[in-house]
Amino acid sequence: MAEEDAEVAHKLAKVATADQVAAVRVAVDNISRRLEVHAQSQAAANVRADAAFAGLASDKTAVATAAASMAAAQPRRATSRAGGTYRGAQCARAAGGSVVSPSSPPGVAVLAAVPSAAAAVFSCPLVLDWAMPVEMMTARMTSRPLNLQLAEMVALCHVSIDEPGLFGSVACLRVYEEGVERIKALQRDGGGVLHGSVNTKKSERMDKVVKNKGYRYLKELYWLHGVMPQLFMPPAEATYQNMKGTSVDASTLQAILNREADALGLAPGHAIRVVTKARSNTLRALLAAKVGRAGATITVEHILSSSPFSELLAQAEKNVRQKYA
Q1: What is the mean pLDDT of the chain?
Q2: Residue range 76-81: average pLDDT?
Q3: Phi, psi of 160 (to 5 degrees)
Q4: Measured between alpha carbons, how far is 161 from 231 in angstroms, rounded to an integer?
Q5: Higher pLDDT, 123 or 322
Q6: Minimal CA–CA distance to 254: which of 267, 269, 272?
Q7: Which among 122, 209, 201, 198 has a CA at the least distance from the CA of 172?
Q8: Residue whose C-alpha is closest to residue 278's, from 187, 166, 143
């Protein structure tokens, strides 16, 4: 009996030892996995920190460069004022920190010089964010009576940000194209771009919105301003909230359209004469007939350079640049 008891005790001891070894092995595996996860997390944190430090170093370099340029230019300006014979050269800083020199051709931006020790790094949210800016007019106009469609177009003539608008769309495209050109120039010069790249599909879509929708609206609005100028507000008042309640009186509009149709000799049953049939495309056909008879085409450039469209665009562009700077 004693020998049997000893043998059983020996077997139980071996089983206990195996269980302990298995428990230790599980604990070691758990510790190894935790260490691996921690190492991966730390590596990701290091990458983010390196990117942040790179951006901070780039910003400090740009500030130091601008300060040095200003300091170097001050004595020259002081001398010119004293002598009275030299007019100091003025430099206008373009969007994104580029500089326009008075000796450069109109519209040509010259990038600020960056020391060779630190390559330039550029980040433009409007370009590098692949989503369409909210200011772009992406919604389609519904088929409704012409007076309601024109009222919708006038409501889009606001200068506010964060809402779709005609002038906001044009301004976004301008700032976007400037950012794209600057990115290309920096990449040619060995610089870099933070957090993204240029999306060609977005570029094409923004261009189509402005050219196929915005410019079309502008031509109809230019005509509407000529016959009903009271519908348009100056930039200081042309906010989204003020413009969204715009209405166009149907009877007044129809009387104007009838006079236009009479001048062109259109038939009595022409769609432009019928309130329930006239649409935006009907008005475009009428305006095209007027241009054909007059023999002079009114360009988008002419419209955007005339009042009140030039003032509204200037204010919208200012607001867009402030938002996406």
Answers
A1: 76
A2: 38
A3: -75, 155
A4: 21
A5: 322
A6: 272
A7: 209
A8: 143
Alpha-carbon span 227 to 290, nearest angstrom: 15
Q: Which amino acid is at 164?
A: P
Structural tokens at position 224: 């509407």
Whole-Å CA distances, 195 to 130, 188, 199, 203: 11, 18, 13, 17
User: Which residue type is seen at 29?
Assistant: D
The amino acid at residue 135 is E
- Give residue for tokens 């005509």: 223
Q: At what angle do helices 146-155 and 250-264 cross, to 10 degrees?
A: 110
Q: Which amino acid is at 312?
A: L
**Can you say whether the dihedral through the CA atoms of 99, 102, 107, 108 is positive or negative?**
negative
Average pLDDT over residues 303-318: 97
The span from the CA of 243 to the CA of 82, in Å, is 51
What is the mean predicted confidence (pLDDT) over 244-255? 96
Q: How many residues belong to the chain?
A: 325
Q: How much is the average pLDDT of 111-116?
A: 40
Please give the model's pTM, rounded to 2 decimal places. Answer: 0.63
For the chain, domain boundaries: 2-80, 122-178+196-324
Of the candidates 115, 127, 107, 125, the residue with the CA atom closest to the CA atom of residue 191: 115
Q: d(Cα 22, Cα 17) in Å, to the nearest integer?
A: 9
Token couple for 172: 């976004």
**Phi, psi for residue 299 in degrees, rounded to 5:** -85, 160
Cα–Cα distance, 157 to 163 (Å, whole number) = 11
Cα 86 from Cα 161, distance rounded (Å): 42
Calculate the CA dihedral of residues 193, 197, 202, 208 and round it to 10 degrees. Answer: 50
Q: What is the pLDDT confidence band of residue 270, given thresholds at 50, 70 and 90? A: very high
Query: Contact, 272 vs 278, CB < 8 A?
Result: yes
**CB-CB contact of 109 with 94 (8 Å):** yes
